[in-house]
Amino acid sequence: MPMTVISGRFSPALLPISLSISRVLKYAGQRRAVFLSRSANASSASASVETNSSVDSVVEKEKNRGEKNILACPICYNSLAWISQPNGLVEPTASGTQLQCNTCKKSYSGNETHLDLAVASGSNQYSEPMPLSTELFRTPLVSFLYERGWRQNFIWGGFPGPEKEFEMAKDYLKPVLGGNIIDASCGSGMFSRLFARSELFSLVIALDYSENMLRQCYEFLNQEENVTNKEKVVLVRADIARLPFLSGSVDAVHAGAALHCWPSPSSAVAEISRVLKPGGVFVATTFIYDGPFSFIPFLKNIRQEIMRYSGSHIFLSERELKDICGACGLVGFTCVRNGPFIMLSATKPSR
Questions:
Q1: Residue 263 forms part of a structural domain
Q2: Could you read off the pLDDT of 235-245 as tens digits, one per residue?
Q3: Where in the sequence is the domain holding 158, given as residue range(s)?
Q4: Is the whole model's pTM more than 0.90, yes or no?
Q5: CA-CA distance, 232 to 229, in Å (whole number)?
Q6: At 150, is the secondary structure helix, strand, or coil?
Q7: Are residue 228 and residue 280 in the same domain, yes or no?
Q8: Each residue of 14-31: pLDDT tens digit?
Q9: Measured by CB atoms within 10 angstroms of the end CB, which terminus of the chain is less buried, N or C?
Q10: How crowded is the C-beta side of 228, counted as CA atoms within 13 Å?
Q11: Are residues 198 and 183 in contact, defined by beta-carbon separation less than 8 angstroms?
Q12: End-to-end Cα separation, the chain, in angstroms
């Protein structure tokens, strides 16, 4: 089958906001201090013990909440704090939400659809040209068409379809079920919705670089009747090579039909490895142009020229993908093939 009919899609980011931004607040809010008052009355010792036990329970809950504070500044990778949160109790709405890095003091904001945690977020004068594949998927037209015919063409490249791919991915993700997951380069949120609908994860972060893809993701989530826990879905705009999450804070990262569109797959996988917890799982699908294509003379040189102008990456063997994962500190590489289609998985080594 001709490879030219296969269109790769881009969303170099993983990263976006929630239908309920209050969910993020619980993950990125400052921990409230718990103050204990000691009783001066010795006769109330038993009541004091009971009070301390109750407070210990509160402290433990606060500790667990702190462990879920995963949002970080994409510049210095230190934690983010909410700028306006009186007494640590008020949870602002999505629109106008603002966060600030505790270290470099860079501020980030959210709007009605997503949280913008890209490095250049908030800049007015500076604009950075991105590869063609990146800019293509930032356009309103392609974002609109992605689930309305574009993604369906992937069947010609051996992709079994979103539902089947989701079932295959779940097998790799079994060790981290119940944790949080990033749907990197989520596009219009096709897999983000499947993860949310399954209720297999405590938090689903739909991450992309394209603002228009995230708007489509937001609209589809609003229309999705089978997702009853929409407060557990967070939409974030970010660059896949500068993920706005604390190191070792994420249980799983999924990237569907995206790896070949990342400007630098090695930089992206290195970032994924950084944010994964020990034992965390990376699952991705992409195309491999091996078989008869591997015998084309100077194909590697041709690939470099294609990448130079389009930003799309051409993988020529499973070994390349295994090398990328290994070089970035991931182990246990395994994969499933169907023609040009490949689903791969690798794991962050346990301590």
A1: yes
A2: 999 999 999 99
A3: 3-17+128-347
A4: no
A5: 6
A6: helix
A7: yes
A8: 333 333 444 443 443 433
A9: C
A10: 3
A11: no
A12: 45
